[in-house]
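Input structure tokens:
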């Protein structure tokens, strides 16, 4: 690459950054934020069985405050709630439909870095898939209560680049009850696009 191209690239980057920083004081998150996700449910971390699926939902900003630091950085602190519908498939076993709601705290840094923690409560409907090898009859549908935590890290592209999208990664930890005669700890992960 020639020096001329590198110089143009650096000047463009600085111009975009300065424009974004100048507009940063006006940044306010949308009150309603729809999302679509790739969702993965994992039954056991020691012998993982991955159940792939999708998730749609909407977040609502309950309250938002802007904290100004001494060095001129603006940090958004947000309380939010959300409602979601997830679908996943455990091949040869069941299809899961999970309805969940969450309430949590989100922090968006000056550079657009997002961190969050959420409490979740939900309902899981598992539709059993039969095969000719089933020896004992089992119910076609089973329902379960779920509650847990998820943590998120991501990047808000609207804060710096003025693109109305955020990208996040969220690991999930939740308890499913009842599971046969007991409770079970489940894990999941999500790659989420927020609009």
């Amino acid at each position: 690459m020639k020096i001329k191209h590198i110089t143009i690239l650096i000047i463009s980057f600085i111009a975009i950054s300065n424009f974004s920083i100048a507009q940063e004081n006006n940044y306010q998150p949308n009150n309603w934020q729809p999302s679509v996700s790739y969702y993965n449910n994992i039954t056991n971390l020691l012998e993982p069985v991955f159940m792939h699926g999708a998730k749609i939902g909407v977040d609502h900003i309950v309250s938002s405050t802007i904290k100004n630091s001494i060095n001129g950085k603006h940090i958004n602190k947000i309380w939010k709630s959300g409602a979601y519908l997830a679908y996943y498939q455990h091949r040869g076993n069941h299809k899961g439909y999970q309805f969940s709601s969450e309430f949590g705290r989100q922090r968006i840094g000056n550079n657009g870095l997002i961190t969050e923690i959420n409490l979740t409560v939900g309902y899981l409907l598992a539709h059993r898939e039969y095969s000719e090898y089933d020896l004992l009859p089992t119910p076609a549908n089973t329902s379960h209560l779920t509650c847990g935590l998820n943590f998120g890290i991501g990047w808000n592209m609207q804060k710096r680049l003025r693109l109305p999208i955020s990208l996040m990664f969220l690991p999930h930890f939740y308890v499913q009850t009842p599971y046969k005669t007991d409770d079970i700890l489940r894990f999941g992960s999500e790659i989420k696009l927020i609009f």
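The radius of gyration is 21 Å. Confidence is low (pLDDT under 50) at residues 17-25.
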